[in-house]
Amino acid sequence: MELERSTKAFTKKKSSHHLTKIITSILLLLLILILIQSQASPFNTPSTSASWAFFNKWKGLAFNTTDGLAFAENSNSLISKLQDSVTFFPLKDLRFAKNAMEGNTWFMSSLNDTRGANEAEYLYFPSEMSKGRLLCIKGNDMKEGTRNSYALAWPEALPDTAKLMEGLTFVSDTYYDYVNLWHGLCAMAPFVSWSINNNCPRPTRWVLFHWGELRSKMGSWLQHLMEANFGAVKIEGLEEGDRIYCFEKAVVMRHNEGSMGKEKKLQVSDLLRCKARRFCGIYPSGKGKEVNERGEPIIKLTLLMRRGSRSFKNATAVIDIFARECAKVEGCTLRVAESEDLNFCDQVRVMTHTDIVASPHGAQLTNMLFMDRNSSVMEFFPKGWLELAGIGQYAHHWMADQSGMNHQGSWWEPLGKKECPSPQQDLECFNFYKDGKVGHNETHFAEWARIVLNQVKARKMEDAIKSYIDKPLPHSTACAC
């Protein structure tokens, strides 16, 4: 009888021990599966917070045995060590402060971009690149990027003081700024491209940096353009400077649009044009096929003027020249607009109904984005730009190429004798001329306007003939995203 009781006790103990081993094995398997999931493709990964809650639920059910409690203690100890091992590095790496444009980057310098042929370079978190870890950012300094920092952390082991920012976050660092139309568009275009490639997700928030320094806003024009494409734009201020912010999903762009190919840039431009027109309630059906009562194609010429720097010295004389040449071409209409007087949708509307824009060099020319493909651009510069400005003066040539426009050339006011205080120092000399006003040459302007007007008229007549075939335009599905 005593042997029987002993045997039963032994069997019970053995069974209990066996059950504990099974439960522990299941927990280990679940933990492994969760970690594998956290490293899976960013577009198919389930919520890490949900996975962790599921794990905790099973841990709570199983840790009622002595072995289970030991396992829990070890697990918590491991998580604590992972939390303590999170290491922050400066967002701005001073080692690359002088050669950031030569293959390196000072923003999150320890990480390598995901690259695709003719696509924008980007970082995605969590992903295989980050080994399933999330991006965390600390600091909100607006004057020194080295005071702001970043780190990678496992979603199951975020630092104790971290705030998890749910949803998708777009993080940008730019060499220039988010206020100037041209610079801002160059920084935002890669996000539009990435969105097109990944079923058009919309960000929950934006985090903006310039040389690692936090920025709290975009320019009004740029914000409206992003709202037209992505919906509401929430710019995260990271108000608590010492608080750690970790992002459930994050896309980081830090090279502007440099690596994007021409076809991708055209695709982005087509989408932004279409979205901006819809945003502003502009539906130009039949545009490009307008004719007057005599059957001549209508050509809409816009002088997009500026005030202050790089405005025309004698705007009245320039307007008279273009008005005379326009009057000589059947179907030509002239509009004069001041960019400073136009809100975002006014600019979209004016440029939607423009075939030729003539304007001094400046950010307002970025509005060519809203013209139909194959529209024409004429650009004017003050003295000193041709000789001293470098390649930056061709920004709107590039803009025209990537948005499908015809840049019809530029006119530079002749420099003559250098009048700058330091004629031997090109940079100082350029700064002297940079914001000067633009003169005019009546003979040159008249001939140039006549040539461009006739070219546009011939193209529109040819398009009118082709329109009988009624083939869809190559960018007619631009708003599909």
TrEMBL record:
Keywords: Glycoprotein, Glycosyltransferase, Transferase. InterPro entries: Glyco_transf_61_cat, Glycosyltransferase_61. Residues 299-378 form the Glycosyltransferase 61 catalytic domain. It comes from Hevea brasiliensis. The lineage of its organism: Eukaryota, Viridiplantae, Streptophyta, Embryophyta, Tracheophyta. The keyword Oxidoreductase does not apply. It comes from the Eukaryota. It holds the Pfam family Glyco_transf_61. This is Glycosyltransferase 61 catalytic domain-containing protein. The keyword Signal does not apply. It is a single-pass type II membrane protein. PANTHER family: GLYCOSYLTRANSFERASE, GLYCOSYLTRANSFERASE FAMILY 61 PROTEIN. It is found in: Golgi apparatus membrane.
